Amino acid sequence: MSLSLVHSRALVGLQAPAVTVEVHLANGLPSFTLVGLADVEVKEARERVRSALQNSGLDFPHNQRITVNLAPADLPKDSGRLDLPIALGILAASGQIDASQLAGYEFAGELSLSGELRPVRGALAMSLVLRRQQVRTRLVLPPGSAEEAALVPDAEIYRARHLLDVVQQFLPPSNEAPPEPSDGWARMAATTPSAPPLYADLGDVKGQAGVKRVLEIAAAGGHSLLMVGPPGSGKSMLAQRFAGLLPPMAIEDALESAAIASLAGRFDLTRWAQRPTSQPHHSASAVALVGGGSPPRPGEISLAHHGVLFLDELPEFPRAALEALREPLETGTITIARAARRAEFPARFQLIAAMNPCPCGYLGSTSRACRCTPDQVSRYQGKLSGPLLDRIDLHIEVPSLPAPDLLNAPPGESTATIAARSLVARELALTRQGCTNADLQGQAIDSQSRLDDSATVLLQKAAVKLGWSGRSVHRSLKVARTIADLAGSETITSVHVAEAVQYRRVLREQ
Question: How far is Cα 346 from Cα 359, in angstroms, rounded to an integer?
Answer without folding.
Answer: 34
